[in-house]
Automatic annotation (TrEMBL):
<comment type="similarity">
    <text>Belongs to the SMC family.</text>
</comment>
<keyword id="KW-0175">Coiled coil</keyword>
<dbReference type="GO" id="GO:0005524">
    <property type="term" value="F:ATP binding"/>
</dbReference>
<dbReference type="Pfam" id="PF02463">
    <property type="entry name" value="SMC_N"/>
</dbReference>
<dbReference type="GO" id="GO:0005737">
    <property type="term" value="C:cytoplasm"/>
</dbReference>
<comment type="subunit">
    <text>Homodimer.</text>
</comment>
<dbReference type="GO" id="GO:0007062">
    <property type="term" value="P:sister chromatid cohesion"/>
</dbReference>
<feature type="region of interest" description="Disordered">
    <location>
        <begin position="789"/>
        <end position="841"/>
    </location>
</feature>
<keyword id="KW-0963">Cytoplasm</keyword>
<feature type="domain" description="SMC hinge">
    <location>
        <begin position="519"/>
        <end position="638"/>
    </location>
</feature>
<feature type="coiled-coil region">
    <location>
        <begin position="308"/>
        <end position="380"/>
    </location>
</feature>
<dbReference type="InterPro" id="IPR027417">
    <property type="entry name" value="P-loop_NTPase"/>
</dbReference>
<keyword id="KW-0238">DNA-binding</keyword>
<feature type="compositionally biased region" description="Basic and acidic residues">
    <location>
        <begin position="420"/>
        <end position="442"/>
    </location>
</feature>
<feature type="compositionally biased region" description="Basic and acidic residues">
    <location>
        <begin position="789"/>
        <end position="819"/>
    </location>
</feature>
<feature type="compositionally biased region" description="Basic and acidic residues">
    <location>
        <begin position="710"/>
        <end position="721"/>
    </location>
</feature>
<dbReference type="InterPro" id="IPR003395">
    <property type="entry name" value="RecF/RecN/SMC_N"/>
</dbReference>
């Protein structure tokens, strides 16, 4: 890996865009002082993430932007890009070339880009961490770095060794672990404090919870007993209801029975009337049937006459068919005889035909034998002639074949040209595909980088949520502590109230004894009134000791209280019997006068609330006291009222009757009774809000936890997505490589086309030569054919005589053929006649069969006519039907009369049954009313059970059983109700509160254990980081020490040097000191060397560090400026040997350094304030430096 180039625009004096290409080896940048050559090293340091403007030789970061000159305006942006060759994979990035860009705008905005994709500065720092190229690494060494080596204290010089050993990330992890350790320790202390507060809360809460449980037990016993009693009463009512239900059922059955009888009788009456009507309609139908029967009789007689006529016709048809059948059978016999005679004649003619054909074949055989004996010589000549014709045809075929081959070859050549053109197009298309693949790869590369950026953003968001969760948990712990403090305060004030703190002894003893020993004690005045916060001080002054006065129901109660104090010697107290105390109010005239005063607020009694029923107590104590805003108002009002009233100000000053005044302020008034009550009330009012907010905070913390968990999943998904994009990118690369291979294949194929075309041209030339040879052979064969044709003509003349004899045989052959043809014609005619007779015979056989079938059909028809209907019987049946209908008419008339009589009797019975039915309905109604009353009583009991105890009857019956009598149960219920009343107000919430506090106590105990485990884990991490730092620092120190000793000797040409640890036993904090002995001198401390010796020693140490922690490239910015010529030459020679493994960019104005350079660049400032690069040769370098 090495630095390929740097691009600068708008950075310091480089106003125009500057490109500097670097190669492995030594590149030297030269230029006169003030030309801006050191700005190149500053630009490299800046793009690697430098944040200190002072390190870049500026006052603020905006100073790196070109600010303008006499001839140019300033720019608004500075931009520097480093391009690194990463072929060797020196950086954890999958690209062979990496560009890092940093931009700064004059508005203060800045941005970093990695391969032209926006990223964070942290990404750049992480990319170069431990690569030897960080902003704090030794890849950039200037005079300041040399001075740092020389002037640093040993402890400060240690940082260089830590950077070289790569322990900074471990120290950062240790610092992070220490921060978390401190945070965990603080949280642990907070949890312990909260646990302490909870421990103090748990005891009183447990007491309240115990009282609440006692109440619930009594309440449960009451519920069980009263529910069982209710179940008993409900069951009694239900039993009575069941009896009534049985009565109702019986009455209803009786009612239904009478109703059914009534309805059945009424139905029978209706049925009788319907039957009467039905008989009338049936009589009409029977009359109609009588008419139809008469008509049917007439029809049957007509059908009998018609059937007789049809029978005669069928007999005649049958006789005719029998006669025709006899005729057809006679005709069929004659045709069959003719057919047999014709068949015999056909067989005789066929035998004569076969004999004639045999004679013809004998003549033809004799004729062929004659031809074979007389034509051999001629046939030989003709055979030769045919052979030559075949040869001529063969030559012609080959000529056509060669011609076709030539044409095919030409077509192949043309097709090859077309294919070549097609492949050219395909190669062009393939080239486009390659370009497309490259663009897709670049696009996917962008998507991959974006996905990585998204993954990093998601990870940052995850870290942010984790930090937010930590902050919220800290706030939640603080809220817990605040709630606990408030509860502790409330508990303290409640305990003070329970102990009656601040009360005189007498009042305190009476209040404590009111529950057990004294009856009729209502409470103190302070307990009965409620004072707004604005009037607390005024009421404290107005009431004074009266706040501790004890209110009783009667004078007797007051006397018993006083006797109690006297008997037990518990002090004294003032008591206010409610039945005897009378209100005391200011006179109307004074009140009206006071209302006219500005600053008058009202009477003290008007400004406070009191427990209902004790308003007269309030007015007795406060009704005559006026309250005003300030003392001056009180003085004016007292004078106006002749100093006969007591007037109190809001600040507690008093003007007494008679004109005396009292006032002032004590240091602490928060201990007063009213102030305590006000504070307790406000704390309780605020506590629920605080607890609600705490609960909201708990939900918020849980939501943040879920969000952090979800974000962690999202970060994982985005990381997975980035990996998928990387995988897709590799696939795209593979596709691009395959496309490039296809493109190369097409190039190879085009070369093959060229070679094949050349081969086809050679083949075409060979075929043209073959065509010439074939043309010569064709001419030779044509000549031979002409000669053979003449010979054949001559032989044919010689054999013409023989043809006459052959003609005679042919005439005989013709005669035989004629006779044979005549016989064949005769045989054919006989065959046709035989076939005709055969067809006629078959047709007659078919006709006979059909006549037989028709005869059978007519015979069956005649038999059916005779046996199918007995017409005399049918006529007789019709006559009988008519007589039967007449008898039916008589029976119907009798039935109609009987039905009318029955209907009248049934209707009379129905009237009697209806009266019985009405009586039953009235009795059923009375029973239903009684059941409704029982229903209401049951409903009330069940409703009470549900509303009071939220129990259904079935559930109560399952749950509670009455084990005693109902009367005893009622007495026990009454006693339980009294016991619950005696418990007074019970804090049922104490049970849940106790459980909540207990659960919270358990939760915080668990948190405490988790925090202790986390603390131990973090301590282990810190110890592991210390061990790692110690090990790495020691290894790096010894490696640098050995290299330093070696490099020192190389640079000085002798002598010796060493590195010394200031605290060898403490490798975590030890400093590093330097001792050196140049040649010819004794060993001494670095500070005692000359300036040049110190500089060369520092350079030796820096080179030793680079040896141990190699950097891909190293920028040396005038580090050799202080060296003399002899040391400079050794420095340059060593730099040359070192450049074999490290790329050097040297900014210098020393000639010895320039002489060792592989490439020289010059920086000039031809235009004032604007640096420019020029290429120089070594011999021009001195001139450039003098400019």
């Amino acid at each position: 890996m090495f630095l390929k180039r740097i691009e600068i625009k708008g950075f310091k004096s480089f106003a125009d865009r500057l490109h500097i290409d670097f190669n492995p080896g030594i590149t030297t940048v030269v230029g006169p002082n003030g030309s801006g050559k050191s700005n190149i090293s500053d630009s490299i340091r800046w793009v690697l993430g430098e944040q200190s403007a002072r390190s870049l030789r500026g006052a603020r970061m905006e100073d790196v932007i070109f600010s303008g000159s006499d001839t140019r305006r300033g720019l608004n942006i500075a931009e520097v890009t480093l391009v690194l060759d990463n072929e060797g994979g020196g950086l954890p990035y999958e690209y062979s070339e990496i560009s890092v860009t940093r931009r700064l705008y004059r508005s203060g905005e800045s941005e970093y880009l990695l391969n032209r994709t926006k990223c964070r500065r942290k990404d750049i720092i992480d990319l170069f961490m431990d690569s030897g190229m960080g902003k704090e690494s030794f890849s950039i060494i200037g005079q300041g770095r040399v001075e740092e080596v020389l002037n640093s204290r040993p402890e400060e010089r240690r940082a260089m060794f830590e950077e070289a050993s790569g322990v900074l990330k471990y120290k950062q992890r240790k610092q992070e672990a220490e921060r978390k350790f401190e945070s965990t320790e603080a949280n642990l202390h907070r949890v312990k404090d909260i646990l302490h507060e909870l421990n103090e809360q748990m005891e009183p809460l447990q007491i309240q919870a115990s009282a609440a449980k006692d109440y619930l037990e009594k309440r449960e016993e009451l519920e069980s007993l009263e529910s069982a009693l209710l179940v008993h009463e409900i069951e009694e009512l239900h039993s009575e209801w069941k009896t009534a239900q049985q009565e109702e059922k019986m009455e209803k059955e009786n009612n239904d029975r009478w109703k059914q009888k009534k309805e059945e009788t009424e139905a029978a009456a209706r049925k009788a009337r319907r039957l009467e009507a039905l008989l009338a309609r049936f009589h009409q139908q029977v009359q109609s049937g009588y008419v139809k029967a008469a008509r049917n009789l007439e029809k049957r007689e007509g059908d009998r006459n018609l059937s007789n006529e049809q029978g005669k016709h069928a007999a005649e048809k049958l006789e005719a068919e029998k006669k025709a059948l006899e005729e057809d059978e006679t005709k069929l016999s004659g045709v069959a005889n003719a057919y047999r005679e014709q068949r015999d004649r056909y067989e005789k003619e066929n035998e004569a035909l076969n004999s004639a054909m045999n004679s013809l074949q004998a003549v033809q055989k004799q004729l062929r034998s004659y031809q074979e004996m007389n034509g051999k010589e001629l046939e030989e000549e003709k055979s030769e002639y045919i052979d030559r014709l075949n040869e001529q045809a063969s030559i012609g075929n080959e000529t056509r074949y060669v011609t076709d081959q030539k044409s095919s070859l030409e077509r192949r050549m043309n097709a090859l040209k077309e294919d070549n053109q097609s492949f050219l197009e395909e190669r062009r298309s393939s080239g486009q595909i390659v370009e497309k693949r490259k663009k897709e790869e670049e696009s996917l590369l962008q998507q991959t980088e974006n996905a990585r950026a998204d993954a990093e953003a998601a990870r940052s968001e995850e870290e942010r949520l984790e930090e937010k969760l930590k902050e919220q948990e800290d706030k939640l712990y603080k809220a817990y502590r605040y709630v606990d403090e408030k509860k502790s305060k409330i508990r303290m004030l409640e305990e003070m109230q329970e102990e009656y703190s601040g009360y005189y002894q007498g009042a305190k003893e009476i209040l404590k004894a009111r529950e057990q020993k004294l009856a009729g004690i209502i409470g103190s005045v302070a307990e009965l009134i409620d004072v707004p916060a604005a009037y607390v001080e005024a009421m404290e002054t107005a009431l004074g000791a009266s706040l501790q006065h004890i209110v009783t129901r009667t004078e007797k109660d007051a006397r018993e209280a006083i006797a109690f104090l006297r008997r037990h010697q518990k002090g004294r107290a003032t008591l206010l019997p409610s039945e005897t105390v009378r209100p005391r109010r200011a006179d109307r005239a004074s009140y009206d006068k006071a209302r006219s005063f500005s600053g008058f607020i009202g009477t003290a009694g008007e400004l406070v609330q009191v427990r209902p029923g004790y308003e007269h107590i309030r007015d007795q104590l406060l009704g005559h006291i006026f309250v005003v805003d300030q003392l001056e108002t009180a003085n004016r009002l007292a004078a106006a009222c002749s100093y006969k009233l007591r007037i109190v100000t809001l600040e507690g000053d008093v003007v007494n009757p008679g004109g005396s005044m009292s006032g002032g302020k004590t240091q602490n008034q928060k201990g007063t009774l009213l102030e305590k009550q006000r504070e307790l009330r406000e704390l309780k009012d605020n506590l629920s809000d605080i607890e609600k907010k705490t609960a909201d905070w708990e939900k918020t913390v849980e939501q943040t936890k879920q969000a952090a968990k979800k974000q962690k999943e999202t970060a994982g998904e985005k990381q997975q997505k980035a990996l998928e994009y990387s995988s897709q990118l590799e696939e795209k690369k593979e596709m691009r490589r395959k496309s490039e291979q296809e493109h190369d294949r097409l190039d190879s194929r085009l070369g093959m086309f060229d070679r094949e075309y050349e081969s086809l041209e050679e083949e075409k030339e060979r075929l043209e030569e073959r065509l010439q040879v074939l043309e010569g052979s064709r001419k030779r064969v044509e000549k031979t054919l002409s000669e053979l044709k003449s010979s054949i003509d001559k032989l044919e003349q010689e054999y013409s005589k023989r043809d006459k004899e052959e003609a005679s045989l042919r005439e005989q052959e013709t005669d035989e053929k004629v006779r044979t043809a005549a016989l064949r014609e005769n045989v054919s005619a006989q065959q046709k006649e035989k076939e005709r007779l055969h067809r006629e015979k078959e047709e007659l056989e078919q006709a006979v069969a059909e006549r037989k079938e028709r005869a059978v059909s007519w015979e069956e028809h005649l038999n059916n006519d005779r046996s199918g209907h007995d017409w005399d019987q049918l006529v007789k049946e019709a006559s009988n039907a008519k007589a039967e209908i007449e008898r039916l008419q008589e029976r119907i008339n009798d039935q109609k009369a009987r039905t009318a009589r029955d209907a009248e009797q049934i209707e009379a019975t129905a009237s009697v049954q209806n009266d019985r039915y009405q009586e039953s309905r009235e009795r059923l109604h009375e029973t239903t009313v009684r059941m409704n009353r029982l229903d209401v009583a049951l409903e009330n009991k069940i409703t009470y059970l549900q509303s009071e105890y939220e129990l259904s009857f079935e559930r109560a019956k399952q749950k509670h059983t009455l084990a005693v009598s109902a009367e005893q149960a009622r007495n026990e219920v009454h006693l339980l109700q009294l016991g619950i009343e005696e418990l007074g107000t019970v804090n049922l919430g104490a049970i849940d509160e106790c459980e909540r506090v207990t659960e919270r106590h358990r939760f915080l105990n668990s948190q405490q254990e988790d925090l202790m485990e986390a603390r131990e884990s973090l301590q282990n991490v810190i110890d592991e980081m210390d061990a790692e730092v110690t090990e790495r620092f020691a290894a790096t120190y010894h490696a640098i020490r050995a290299e330093f000793q070696h490099v020192f000797v190389k640079l000085f040409g002798g002598g010796e040097a060493d590195l010394v640890l200031t605290e060898p036993e403490n490798l975590l904090h030890t400093g590093v000191d330097i001792s050196a002995r140049p040649p010819g001198k004794k060993k001494q401390h670095l500070s005692l060397l000359s300036g040049g010796e110190k500089a060369l020693t520092a350079i030796a140490l820096l080179f030793a560090i680079i040896k141990v922690k190699p950097a891909p490239f190293c920028v040396l910015d005038e580090v050799e400026a202080a060296l003399d010529e002899a040391n400079l030459v050794r420095f340059a020679k060593y730099l040359r040997s070192f450049s074999e493994t490290t790329q050097f960019i040297v900014i210098s104005h020393r000639k010895a350094t320039m002489e060792e350079a592989d490439v020289l660049y010059g920086i000039t400032m031809e235009e004032s304030g604007v640096s420019k690069m020029v290429s120089v040769r070594l011999e021009e370098a001195d001139e450039l430096l003098e400019v």
